[in-house]
Amino acid sequence: MLTHCLGYPRLGPNREYKRTVEGYWQGDLTLEALDTARLDLIRQRIDAQVAAGLDLVTVGDFSWYDPLADWGLSLGYVPARHHDNSLNRDDQLFFMARGVRWDGAAAPALRLRKWFDTNYHYLVPELERGPVRPLDISPLLAELAEARASGRTVKVVIPGPLTFLWLSDAGAGAEPLDHLPVLIERYRQALAELAEAGADWIQLDEPAFALDLPVTWISQAEAVYHGLQRHDVKLMLAVSYGAPTLPLSTLAALPVAALHVDGLADPAAAEVLAERLPPHRALSIGLISGRAVWRGDLNTLTARYATLARRLGDRLLIGTTTSLQHVPWDLASEQALAADVCAKLAFARQKLDELVTLRALLRDAPEGLAAPAGGQTVSPPAETELTRAESRESRIVRQRQALGLPLLPTTTIGSFPQTAELRRARAQWRKGELDEAGYQQVIDRYLQECIRIQEEAGVDVLVHGEPERTDMVEFFAEFIDGMVTTTYGWVQSYGSRCVKPPIIVGDLSRRQPMTVAIFRRAQALTSRPVKGMLTGPVTLLNWSFVRQDIPREAVAYQLARCVREEVADLEAAGARIIQVDEPALREGLPLRQSQHADYLRWATRAFRLATAVAGPDTQIHTHMCYATFGDILDAIVALDADVITLETSRAQGELVRHLARHPYPADIGPGVWDVHSPAVPDTDQLVAFIERLLTVIPAERLWINPDCGLKTRNWEEVVPSLHHMVEAARRVREARSAKAARKADEAVH
Known about the structure:
Strand content: 5-15%
Largest sheet: 8 strands, parallel
Mean pLDDT: 94
CATH class of the largest domain: Alpha Beta
Number of helices: 26
Oligomer: single chain
CATH topology of the largest domain: TIM Barrel
CATH architecture of the largest domain: Alpha-Beta Barrel
Number of domains: 2
Number of strands: 19
Structural class: alpha/beta
Strand order of the largest sheet: 1-10-9-8-7-6-5-2
Helix content: 40-55%
Low-confidence stretches: none
């Protein structure tokens, strides 16, 4: 019985990854230093697996930005706007990912999308022109060489061909499957090079096999894998992020050495596959969660799988359900967590130990064990708590009169750059080196600067910039009983961007107002409206590690009541606009379509529970980013928000086409500027995009704003970008006013 993981975190024990790659972008590190740091991080990941005693050491999932886009680059797929033969491989990847070349030349970056139902963002490969560079898997070969030096059996992980194709952009008017013949030929070449270099196993990740794939895609699986089969290396096809939706008979017949399925998501699938697999093929079962931080219930798992383990013998492998990239590096670094909390947790390093322990338990398990059954119920909120005092149409009229905003009002999403002074002051305050009064002086100086910059730029609805917040979820967790935060519990969100998800350990309640005091201080600095800024209950849920002893729906309602109390307090403090962000609403959508309705039912109810307490004159905004909004349009409407802002700048045409077919019934602010690129948007381009939006959105309902918050940018990028955005809105506003005046004059004459 062999043990393995599907992948390992890239960040390092103390975010060495982040500091290295950002140092390179800033010109503080050379390419040679970047390469040295890469090998150091790869060795740490290998050493962790070796020290735990895993039988297979997994490598191949390291990337300085995103493995899927990196694999596309390995296969030779580079968009025309990014293709530059003078760039080294790393700079080519960064140009595709960030939209800016080393010499400052800019082009729109690859789009970001959520990775299945997680908070990880992947870059969408673009295949329109086909491969334009030779196959180059040198980074994989370097990882493989390091792993082989450990003396262990080595497994190299790469994206499976059908998942790679499903998640990529095939190009305008193209069918994705049209790219399959060329793609498979590149895969054959890559597998041959890996086999020749000494790979023992190659793991082909096919999480798309957990989706409701069209029949035309399912029918390709057998031909694809027959075309890839080899006898000089073992292939493992891994289905993760849910139970397989491909017919199990189809999966069992595929010519691979092993199939991997998620044994926590669907134990029955593992049982069926064990019966149907040919006797010379192995079954790998994910039994340790790659997404939750809780210790596995090893006794229950032993009882459930002991019989299967005896039947399969050495044809059984046990692993993680997904890559461990979704959990922090090592619990041993956490010195501030209470002992009773730590006793329930397992981060990536501890999960490797759990795999080895579980292997021993399964080997020694007596016959006749039975897994316990259980179940929980949910008490839903009353309907009266979910309904605003007046209809949306009535509220729109009242709010326009109360706010007096111009046509095409401008705003931002919430956060502004977290400066070195802010981070330093926060660290000193947390260590007790700076008292509360000194810390608040730093915050107040920042507030004054934020308000001044926005007023000078001419922004209509201001934000306070969120200087007091480390993160849009972690900040609120520190005010809610039943949530705990970590010191080193970082996980990767995209590129070098990291977050520290809180851990929900019990029932939830708000200890005290969370944002009221800083809202009052910011609003006192200006006559323009300042938004109250909150994170919504569904995002607080989906971006935390959630307790597993009660349903997620019940936890969502507890969080909603905490946010509801804050909305009421902000309104009482004079907030006329309150933004309740829900960027994670779409990512929580189950992969199976049959489960969508139930999730969206309780997710929208949680948002309405949080916001329905607001009076009709108070304008409720919400924000969403990096998702396919067409999947959840009805749910977005059901939120009953007054204004919604969306990420759209990397997919302008897609949104315009969608809104032309499905107009949004309230005010909407599609992002006009990509905040995840350091490029400053051009005013003329912003004008053109706004004019394009006006072909599908009435002017009186269109807001002008960036894609997302600005905390990851610097002021040298933000200030001119704000001015360009406001200037673009002014130009369009004046052009429409002049056009209306000409029409009126023509009507008179």
